[in-house]
Amino acid sequence: MNAIQDCLSLLQSPQSIFITTHHKPDGDAIGSVMGLAHYFIKKGHRVFPVSPSEVPDFLSWIPGLETVYNYEAEPKKVEQALDESSLIFCLDFNDLGRVRTMETLLASATQPKILIDHHLFPKPYFEYGVSDASKSSTCEMIYDFINTAGDNALIDETIGACLYTGVMTDTGSFRFPATKASVHRMIADLMDKELKHSPIHEEIYDNWTEGRMKFLGYILKEKMEIFPELHSGLITIAQKDIDDYNVQTGDTEGLVNYPTSIAGIRFATLIIERKDGIKMSFRSKGNFDVNTFAREHFNGGGHFNASGGQSSQSFTETILRFKKILSEIHP
Ligand code: 5GP
Ligand code: MN
Q1: Of 42, 107, 120, 163, whose CB has the highest number of CB atoms within 10 Å?
Q2: Distances (CA, A) of 9 to 40, 87, 150, 155, 262
Q3: Which residues have C-beta within 8 Å of that of residue 306, sequence separation ≥ 6?
Q4: In this predicted structure, what is the pLDDT of residue 250?
Q5: Same domain, 201 and 225
Q6: Domain hosting residue 61, numbered range
Q7: Is residue 316 pLDDT above 90, yes or no?
Q8: Pocket flag, ligand 1, residue 300 (CB < 6 Å)
Q9: Which residue puts its alpha carbon closest to atom 12 of ligand 1?
Q10: CA–CA distance from 100 to each of 57, 176, 274 (Å)?
Q11: Is 226 found in the same domain as 148?
Q12: Predicted pLDDT of residue 206
């Protein structure tokens, strides 16, 4: 992979740029796509922001979100956008499998692919890019990219709001270890550029439905198991729970973190039974490596302290297998 600086020459004349991210996008995924899109528009490029699947409601306020194509809903439009594009930016993922149903389309594209991402072990699909697992978020890396291009002065309130969203959500509101001084310097710069941070917190964290809050109460009371001697917590959500509570995309966001707020718990797992299979999320505090754990046992990956995976077994079998592994590894 060539350095990200080397792709700047490709951007000297107006381009049509396909910008995409991972399936089930989160705040960092959509924040980075739209932050980069607004920057490219200011530079005179045409942009096609694309999400492989639906964008959750808590991000509906993001400026320009209505211009994002959802591949699952409008595959033909996305195929046409890709045909018309001269460059492809891949943000917040480093393995084409993470775009799920869009994988074949992306893999067959011949335009240069440019990676900006902070997950471990990038796959060798990208002509240009930057992969840095020490970065708090892809949004921080978009900020760095704009600065590298010499365009700090183009960052405005709109770009700032998009980028702030990803940094805030990926750092757990500036508390995880990846929140280095560079992150605080970036946010200070965004605030100098008219960023209004409080409304963004409210949009993302104070925008629950009553149903979502009741679902959280039910899950914490009925579906969370704590294993103090293993320093671990497990939350399991069956398809029936999702149906009974009419759970929407985004409603399970953040659930996996709850066990780690219990004293002595340093490893938390969420297992969800979804229509398209079993999805797992892993979080840790300190030096238990959940990236390796997800890779070795559940065909996944991510970061040292936050990762995800999947299972092709049934929900019940997955829970049993997980518990067996847990008792063997003693996190
Ligand atoms: P989450 O638990 O929020 O879905 O994901 C946590 C982190 O792990 C994210 O950075 C995400 O990109 C990564 N991740 C989640 N699921 C998978 C997966 O199935 N495979 C890989 N390689 N990474 C994943
Ligand atoms: Mn991210």
Answers
A1: 163
A2: 14, 12, 13, 20, 50
A3: 176, 281, 282, 283, 284, 290
A4: 83
A5: no
A6: 2-205
A7: yes
A8: yes
A9: 302
A10: 21, 28, 15
A11: no
A12: 95
Looking at residue 156, its pLDDT comes to 98
Ligand 1 atom nearest residue 282's Cα: 2
Residue 253 identity? E
pLDDT band with cut points at 50, 70 and 90 for residue 248: confident
- DSSP-assigned letter for residue 92: S
The verdict on 253 and 291 lying in the same domain is yes
Q: Which amino acid is at 306?
A: A
Q: For the sheet containing 128-131, what is the strand order?
A: 2-3, 128-131, 113-117, 87-91, 16-20, 46-51, 69-70
Token output for 145: 């990219």
- Do 31 and 161 belong to one domain? yes
C-alpha dihedral sign at 129, 134, 138, 142:
negative
Give the residues across from 48 on adjacent strands: 18
Q: Which residues have CB under 8 Å from 317's CB, separation 6+? A: 311
Q: Is the CB of 160 under 6 A from ligand 1?
A: no
Could you tell me if 187 and 54 lie in one domain?
Answer: yes
Which of 180, 205, 230 is the C-terminal boundary of a domain? Answer: 205
> Considering just the CA atoms, what is the radius of gyration of the chain in Å?
20
Interatomic CA distance for residues 63 and 49, integer angstroms = 12
Residues 111, 166, single domain; the answer is: yes
Expressed in angstroms and rounded, the spacing between residue 156 Cα and the centre of ligand 1 is: 30
Q: How many structural domains does the chain have? A: 2
Give residue 170 CA to ligand 2 midpoint distance, Å.
6
Question: For 279-285, what is the mean pLDDT?
Answer: 97
25 Cβ below 6 A of ligand 1:
no
pTM recorded for the entire structure: 0.94
Residues in CB range of 186: below 8 A, 6 or more apart? 140, 143, 163, 167
Residue where the block lists tokens 């917190």: 201
